[in-house]
Amino acid sequence: MSEATRVPTQGPEHPLLRLALVAVLAGCGGTPGTVVVDTDSPPAPSTTGTPTTSTPTPSPTDTTDPSWPTLPTETPSGVRGLLVGPDGTARGDAEVMACTRTTCFTGTTEPDGTFVFEVEPGTEVALKSVWNDDVEPRLAEALRPIVVDEDGAMTLDFVYQPDLPEGAEVQSSSHDPQALGVGDDLVLTVDKAALKAPFGVFLQDIAARRIPDVWVPPYPPLGEIVALAVWALHPFDTTSTAGVGVDAPCDRPDGTSLELWAIDPIDGTFEGPHAGSCEGGRFTLAQGDGPTRLTYLVLAPAP
User: Fold this and answer.
1) How many domains does the chain contain in total?
2) Residues 6+ apart with CB under 8 A from 67
3) Could you tell me if 47 and 75 are in contact, meaning their C-beta atoms sit under 8 angstroms apart?
4) Using 50, 70 and 90 to split pLDDT, how confident is the model at 162?
5) Rg of the Cα atoms in the chain
6) Is residue 18 part of a domain?
7) Is 118 within the bounds of a domain?
8) What is the CATH number of the domain that holds 130?
9) How much is the average pLDDT of 4-13?
10) Nearest C-alpha neighbor of 56 from the set 68, 74, 45
11) pLDDT in tens, 177-216
């Protein structure tokens, strides 16, 4: 990737205007490559970059496969990683972002799916690739939160981008409350009147994809605790003025205390927890007690 170009923003500018500003700068002879934008609001979805199939890999631990891109064991500087699609193949020439609370660095993966960002040591960062509903199957947002090492050098094994199921149609508010089977055994109870999709997005359905266990990364806010299940939700960063009801599968004995977290879409920090327990193989939160943001939901044992 080439040297970053900083694009300042002011006030509650909408992401589509920000992208237009980037396009204007590029057309005026600006240096191509990574663009840096403020994150008063999240970037708009991309409609470019489809999954590639040139680097087949069954899992991130299959280091014997010679087609798996080689990442350096010692990173001289920056955050380096590999973007992979729903079938475990590297996603080349795809838009990626490294977002902090104040700034997003954007760029494009190399043909082999690798990327690198220079980020201040100790910073909480959300590594992302934007969702795309103009491909088949649709792609969910990729989201992996990290805390950059104190020396500023990190090498990540993967950033996983799942696909999406068909989802559940959101009906008119006359049907509220609506219990929606959004995908992969996750049921969300919502009020259409309380939902707000990202600007410019038509809220037609809500969909969820459970991340395969092999692609669930360690999450810094959880410390040594391993997540039991993670779902990517769509439309990404839809919000609700009332807590969303949750009915999710769990594989722990009855009475086991669990916590549900939502991942902040800007810098990857955790929002919650929403406490409950596993009863009869289900974890449930009543409407009003659940998360108010539909991004990634992380179910984990209570400390």
Assistant:
1) 2
2) 55, 56, 57
3) no
4) very high
5) 19
6) yes
7) yes
8) 2.60.40.10
9) 34
10) 68
11) 999 999 999 999 999 999 999 999 999 999 999 999 999 9
